[in-house]
Amino acid sequence: MKKVLLSLFFLSVSSYLFGEAPVWYAPGDKLTVLAPSGLNLREKADINGKLVIKVPYGGKLTVLKDAAKPVVFSFDNIDGHWVYADYAGKKGYIFDGYLSTLPAPEVSEDSQYPLLDYLYSVSESSGDPEQDGEGGEGSMTSIEKYSFDNKCTAEISVTDYWTDDPDYIREVYTFPMMTRVEDAFILLKAFGYFSGDPKFVFPTQSISPKENKLKFEIQKSANVLTMYNDDIFIQITADKNGVTLDIRNQ
Questions:
Q1: Predicted structure pTM score
Q2: pLDDT tens digits for 184-194?
């Protein structure tokens, strides 16, 4: 087992450095479908392979041992592989780009901080949040820092202005189990952050607001994706320690 984990570690690091989609799972791992419309499990590692079953959003699979080398595949601008897996006793190949070690979010419109509530639902907290504050000219900022047993963290800053201006809210989350910018993008999509355009796919290059229905100014580099419009700012950054997600209201 140690040899398998060590091999996966070096494969992930080399893939991160050279920009290839990493294989971040091992036989026996439990993965969840985060594609809103579900994913197809096929007999062969091929888009034309015979359909075995359609796995719905939130469906849980078990990775199986496969002697064959992972077959590269891309969908919705997300690079990945066909992974051999079991779903409800049925075996076949499924695209790993929309799979996650995290469970599928159950979105509530009543939640002020849905990502924070989500972290509380998937892991025990490591204690009460740390609280801090700082004052500025005509404003006061309160800061709360959260840590969880699964090593995720959250920091929420709320700036209250002494005028009629709305509060400025910034949320920063870290996900050490993620390896790519795409992982956080898919999670945000599951939360409905891009519901204004159901066909909005992962950006592979910088795009102007005129080129997408969400009116995002999009800046894309190898391991950073920044998207913002008049209402929201989103930045996703990936490095060897995981993925950081920075969300701010505008």
A1: 0.87
A2: 999 999 999 99
